[in-house]
Amino acid sequence: MATTDTPADSxxxxxxxxxxxxxxxxxxxxxxxxxxxxxxxxxxxxxxxxSALDVDWLLICVKLxxxxxxxxxxxRFAALVRQGPGNExxxxxxxxxxxxxxxxxxxxxxxxxxxxTWKVGVYADHLARDRAxxxxxxxx
Length: 140
Prior knowledge:
Elements (H helix, E strand, L loop, with lengths): L2 E2 L8 H8 L3 H9 L8 E3 L4 E2 L2 H15 L4 H13 L4 H41 L12
Parallel strand pairs: 1-2
Antiparallel strand pairs: 2-3
Helix pairs in contact: 4-5
């Protein structure tokens, strides 16, 4: 682990939690699970100090997880990035497969939204015509 005397541009774990939306616990978990692309610097007192690059990487991780990337794939992606140049085709395959899953989820959600929009219109029409208390038809 890198030790530092707290450079002015480094951030505490609390500051990084605030910027990324991750909890302090989650940041420690990410470090334990080797999801970061480099070691987190530490002060001489052992406190974590994050760089702007660490924050940028964590923001990418947050979006990948929010979009449903499994932890194992995120670990694999982080390992590939840590290895450096030469494995870009594997990184591309991993991210492209994830993008395809996200695209499928978006398509499914758009279909759901369409059905919901239709049902909202049906009930708005019923209320506008004062038919809300009429016969119940679950498909109407």
